[in-house]
Request: fold
Amino acid sequence: MKQLYINFIFFIAIWVLFPSGVKAQCVTGNEFNNNNPKRDMRGVFIPTLFNISWPSNSSATPAVQQAELIAILDDVKANGYNSVFLQVRPAGDALYASTLEPWSNWLTGTEGTAPSPFWDPLEFAVTEAHARGLDLHAWLNPYRVKYGSYTTHPDHIISEQPTWTFAHQSNPNLIVLDPGLPQVRDYIVSIIEDIASRYDIDGIHFDDYFYLNGGMANPPNNQDAQTYIDHNPGSLSLENWRRDNVNQMIGMVFDAIQTINSNENKNVVFGVSPFGIWKSGTPPGIVGTSSYSALFCDPIAWMQAGKVDYIAPQLYWAFGGGQDYDILSQWWNDQADTYNTQLYISQAYYKMDAPQNWAASEIQNQIDENREVSMDATFGQIAYRYNEIGNNLKGINTALNAAQFQYKSFAPPIVGAGKDAICPNNPDNIRFEPLKIVWDTPAVAGDGDLPEKYVVYAFNNAAQATTNKNDGSKILDIIAGNELSLTQSQIDNKFIVVTSLDKNNNESGDFCNKPLPIITAPCSVASITAPTAKFNCTGSYTGTTSTVFPIESTTEVIWNYDFGGGNTFIQTQNVIISDATPPTVITQNIVVTLTGPSVTISAGDVNNGSSDNCAIESMSLDKYTFTCADIGVNTVTLSITDKNGNSASATALVTVEGELTEYSISGWSNGIPHLGSLAKISGNYTTNNGNIDTCICEITPTGTLTVEPGHYLNVQGDIIVDGNLIVEHQGSIVQTDNNANVVNNGTITVKQTTPSLGSRDFMILGSPMSNDTRTGVWGSAFLVLNHHTLNFVPNNDVETAFPGSENFADDNYNNWMEYNGGINPGEGYIVRPQAGYGQPGGVFNYTYGQGTLNNGIVNFNVIYNTPGPTNADNRNASPNILANPYPSAISADDFISANPMINEVYFWEHLTPPSPSYPGAGSMNFSMQDISMYNLTGGTAAANDPGTTTEPNGIISTGQGFAIKASAAGIAEFNNSMRLLNGNNTLRSASTITNSLNKERIWITLNSINFDLQNTTLLGFSDNATNEIDPGYDSRCLATVMAVYTLLDDGSEQLGIQSRGKFKFGTKVPLGFSSQILGIQEYEISIANLEGFNLSGANVYLWDDENQTMTKINNTPYKFKSKDGIYNERFVLLFTRKAINDNKILESNDKTFEPLYLFPNPTKGVINVSAQDAIIKKVIIYDLQGRMVTSKSFNDTTIQIDISGLSPSIYLMNISTENDTYTRQVIKK
Reply:
């Protein structure tokens, strides 16, 4: 029998303690049967030079090359091999990501060109090989740096160090490194260190390219003549000197690898494939080219010095003749045995091809020879090359799989001083699951190793497992994963063992204790006979478990064994309850009453005796809670799951009834209504007695319900009116369900009162009823107009005077036409309530009552004109007039958010009478100063606001009309989710503006000193916005006599409302203004309002670029003079943090704090410096040559320096405060 651990090296069973107390046994000893060795190197060389085996084409894509490599590894695994030797450095190049050598020509077609898309073939190969349980050795040619006529890369060693190389005497395209140069040896070692340290390879392998075989010229013309002179301190002969050079390189590589193994806990092995003949005539009868004389290398010296882990001579000959395989293999075995080195024999699979045409039996016979008893140091073979395996040449795969490779094997561990001899821990928790064996990865072993792969055996019985543990014929598979599929026969009849292999293929496992069988039962398991286990294959110990019996569902039972002395063992046993019968589900219908806004039921309420053949685990309903929306009959599904996961379901009917409460002269019959009530009004009820929240509201023929101003009727579902429903002005009716109805069999009246109007004033109104008409509601009004968007053409005079502004003036007024038809829900109309032109105005009352109340979804067809050329032009030409269609207020925010073609809404505030002085097409035109605006940022008051607060607050009252400027055609939708229970108190905005959602907002107002004119712009900051144009958050300013507006950072867009991203101190926002007031006039800019936590802690500065002044406008308006015109670049707003003495406490962790602000920078002349929390004492300015050009002293937190006298350049400003000194860069324009 073959002894794995040769000569004096031997191992005995070693026990290694798991953290859990489980111990692992190292598997050692002789092979049970040399014909089926389980420790047997079965390697395959994969040459890449000239694309011999892979990749098939250097121009193939990475995806194709990867697929080819995967196919090779799959084929190698399927045919019984366990190791691959991938050529990664054919000739001073790299098939891996190297910083030392260029990418290989054989990978990408051009040396030095990285694969695209990028991938690392060696990293990929290691991962894929290990996933298949294969070891991977990186195969390199140490000296060869070119072999072929291709062009090398400028980074190639030939170009970088030309004196390090020489060519074959008769082949200039075969170039090698000069082995005699010390720097060459160092260079080779650096390459090995790079690969071994960065990649999870299993070995480094060299082939037979040392000194050039037949390529060295005779002295004195030998290529290494000068090297011999310079680097031969021992005065060796040329031949011995050359052999010594190679020996030194081999030793240095071996030592470097051992250092990496030790420092990085790796197990990279090192071996070489020299020529198969050491010396011609050794052993007797052997003739041919020798390693010793032709290549000047001495493999015997390497083994004798212990500088290789294995030797793999190329015995590329058949039996018989001057290179007899039988004689040579035995000789190499004996040398390896003598020097305690493992022997793998490289075999010539390629000679099965022409011209030699070996039969497959030649390879088989050689493998049989390797397994002879006398070959006690030989542990397998390496096939050169993959091509013949890939083609199954001469049926080699078929032949080997039927005999020599019938059973799996793993590469033998490398033994010897300094090698990994610590076994991994046994697999944890080995257990059967249906048709597979499963195990867990154990804890790390004493050397820090985890298993790299696992071996699964199938013995006939326990005795065989114990005595024949090294029987390779019992191996089912060797895998990297944690489970293996089995047949039921294997589970039932075989003694299954799973062992661990570490990175050196040290093996450990328990061959004494078989995994526990699966127990299968239909419903439950009352008890299990406690199993027994052996310790070190002796004794009998009974397991204990904490599992509760009976077991009624599939369970993992944990058995614990105490072997004494701190030695414990755990086994898992699966109990499978094989119940496949679903429960029988029986339901009952139920009736529930809403005694509040909702009612909740349980699964048990609809269960009616459901059962299961084993036991029910859970019952559930698809719906538990019911509200007003569910009144009536509802279908629910009862689902039942039994203990074993079988489930079934059935339906039941749940009838939901509202709780009736009726109002009569004596009050409510069943308490005040709630959202689950059926509220019936049979008497006269006014909401002065309380608002009503109900599910359904019914007004009987004898009943009258009056919704008073500021009060509401909130109904989830239907409203049935057989009596009288009166909604006073500012009263609200809200329905939740978009599909609910308002049935009017009686009388519905909605009242509306206008503000006080002038003699020529008008309102924009709509109706909350479905069938109102112009004559039925506004019959007393002398004129009603509806809008025709397709006729609207922006007035050219206004466009010329106010470019970049929103324009509501038509070119000829044909967009408004007299109207006498029905009032379409959602549409707005101009209503002139006076008796005629010049007739007195006042307050006017209207009553809506035709049809029924509008409810649910109301659609409005939005018209979009496209005169072009820009989208802004199209939008400006697309005003549409809408109105709130409900008897309640709606949220403008919700309306804008629901309709993507709408960015804002506009309101006519009817503040001033028409005048021929206003721009427009008529003899009497209305002023756009009377239009207010609102978007998701907030609202701005009309420019003519007399102080009555026309700033919109986001609430649109009943029947209130408004305009939009459409950004696209489409359907604008109103729906019940927009409706509000309060706020329906005026056709203007509320007098008190609330800061909803704590928005960061500031309103900046421009006033004329000499004329009663003003304009306001709104600037907000929001997480929902950006510093660019955001639909719904940014709106252009209106075409007013004078305007103030913000701009984007690039100076584009005149925005009456702008929202930017999250507020940050130091923010700068361009501010522009325009005025049509002729001549030089005086104006002032001030803060009208400021909201938000951050803004309330900010100093707001206004930079006037024309006057070169900086003014803090928090409490003091800024006054300036200007002539008429448009000034987009005159002003900038700057927001800085208030200092502590400004009552703003600074947070120490506030990342927005900046101690200094400089503005403007770049500057034409004046620069302002603001210190946030200190007094500025001195400022010194230096040019880039370090020369001081200005020095001034100060004693203030904000100072101004005039540098207009300096030349345009970059300067450094040194600013000294009472606390610190800062340096800032300043650019003088």
